[in-house]
Specification:
This protein has about 475 residues and is α+β, with helices and mostly antiparallel strands. Helices cover about 45% and strands about 15% of the residues. The protein contains 16 helices and 11 strands.
């Protein structure tokens, strides 16, 4: 799904938005999960994220058709430290972004400017890949296997079924595998190199919280919006008419008309209009900065003035607020069985074995705790697999997602992660209020999110300045 909630750091400029949201963010969030730390994920009653969409579910072969690519003739358009970028690489990325925009994503710049920005982003990527190789940062085959098997499992497909789906959509599996490896590599590199650059002191947190304790330590916000989309090449007259339309709708909403009905009648955001425009309660770090800034100071139920983004005009309503002084978050107590994969015992075999173990529990042949003591290759095995009480973000994304879908007493299907194959049983849940330290961590999260993009851009520019970049003309 490509909507405003897919923009993890709420970039405002077109190029960073394309780079981290349309080019990287969407794909990585679907394939390998969120990397937000525990203190950034404390929220109440959050519904599970939309299940990942299988690459090619919309027919991956359309990528080339959308861009009008002549696949029989390709050529190199740039070389970055001996890493080539081809004409087809650019065309396919452009096609993917255009497709996302047509399906509710942000408005795009003119085609020539878009191609220039995409090429610029690819040059940045290649310089980062080159740097990763120079420091011997690698992604193992086992990690790529786990990511692909997790994609298959989340889409309720076997690995062979996934390969067949890709083949039917014209996607080469090995090429996809290589692309996935590179994406995981880039994410890991950025986490390793950029995060340490962001230094937030206790004094920074103290000053931040002192400015406005209620607002600055806000951890969650639920807003609803109505999008009046602006076409890519809107004329001044069209722009004026659309702005007038947005202002009229805003005035109607401010007078008390049913916002949900207005959203269903007028919103161009297909991902939220059937929910009355509402996003649901989310961490402020997971909402576009435009929405957070526009609604600052508004009370629940109030309507913000019309706001403008690259996508168009927004009418935004505050539905619910939650700050760290009042926030409750859910802790979960679970037990699991872990089987680790080895070269002699691949993940596919472990999934079969874990399915048999699960059947023993569901058939009443043995208890989960007994089988955990017998089979689990984790330190919790001696305790019957009991992991104790855990806060959001404590487990890897695959584990956390499966656990969140369970009701107390239920047992998951086998879950693949980078640690191996898990069988999970939820024991119980409870609501816990944030501690004083967690309140400070929430404020630290907002500061870190605000500073990440500038730190990333600075690091990326430094890498690019030290890279050899050769631009080539078309033959």
């Amino acid at each position: 799904m490509t909507d405003f909630t897919s923009l993890p750091r709420a970039m405002s400029a077109v190029r960073p938005r394309l780079l981290s949201a349309l080019v990287h963010g969407v794909c990585l969030s679907l394939l390998i999960g969120s990397t937000a730390p525990a203190w950034a994920q404390l929220r109440r009653n959050e519904s599970p994220s939309v299940a990942p969409r299988i690459p090619g579910a919309r027919n991956m072969s359309t990528d080339l058709k959308l861009a009008g690519v002549q696949t029989t003739s390709d050529f190199i358009v740039a070389v970055v430290n001996q890493e080539p970028i081809t004409h087809t690489d650019v065309d396919k990325r452009v096609a993917r972004i255009q497709d996302a925009s047509r399906n509710g994503g942000p408005a795009l710049p003119p085609p020539d400017e878009l191609r220039s920005q995409v090429l610029d982003a690819l040059i940045d990527e290649k310089s980062q890949v080159s740097f990763a190789k120079s420091i011997n940062l690698e992604i193992s085959d086992a990690e790529v296997d786990a990511a692909i098997e997790n994609i298959a499992a989340q889409n309720q497909l076997s690995l062979s079924d996934l390969k067949q789906r890709m083949a039917s959509d014209g996607l080469d599996f090995q090429r996809y595998r290589n692309s996935l490896r590179e994406q995981i590599l880039l994410q890991r590199l950025r986490e390793r190199e950029v995060t340490p650059r962001i230094q937030i002191t206790d004094a920074d947190v103290d000053a931040f919280m002192k400015e406005d304790p209620a607002a600055q330590t806000e951890v969650a916000l639920n807003v609803a919006h109505i999008l009046i989309a602006v076409p890519e090449k809107a004329t001044p007259a069209q722009l004026q008419a659309l702005q007038a339309k947005a202002q009229d709708i805003q005035a109607r909403a401010a007078r008390g008309e049913n916002f949900a009905k207005l959203a269903k009648d007028f919103s161009d955001d297909r991902n939220t209009r059937d929910q009355g425009g509402a996003f649901g309660l989310r961490d402020v770090s997971r909402l576009p900065e435009l929405f957070v800034v526009t609604t600052q100071g508004l009370k629940i139920g109030q309507i913000a003035p019309v706001a403008r983004s690259n996508a168009g005009f927004h009418i935004i309503k505050v539905v619910e607020r939650e700050n760290s002084a009042q926030a409750m978050y859910t802790q979960q107590r679970a037990r699991h069985i872990l089987l680790r994969s080895t070269p002699q015992l691949p993940t596919t075999e472990l999934v079969k074995r874990m399915t048999e173990i699960r059947k023993q529990v569901t058939d009443g042949q043995s208890s989960f705790a007994q089988l955990a003591r017998q089979y689990s290759e984790d330190g919790s095995g001696s305790k019957g697999g009991d992991l104790g009480w855990a806060s959001p973000g404590q487990f890897v994304p695959e584990f956390e997602k499966a656990l969140s879908a369970l009701q107390p007493g239920q047992i998951s299907e086998p879950v693949v992660s980078r640690f191996g194959v898990h069988l999970i049983q939820l024991i119980e849940r409870r609501e816990v209020q944030l501690t004083e330290q967690q309140k400070r961590d929430a404020a630290r999260t907002v500061l870190r999110e605000r500073r990440f993009e500038s730190a990333y851009e600075e690091w990326s520019r430094e890498l690019r300045a030290g890279a050899y970049v050769e631009m080539r003309d078309a033959p």
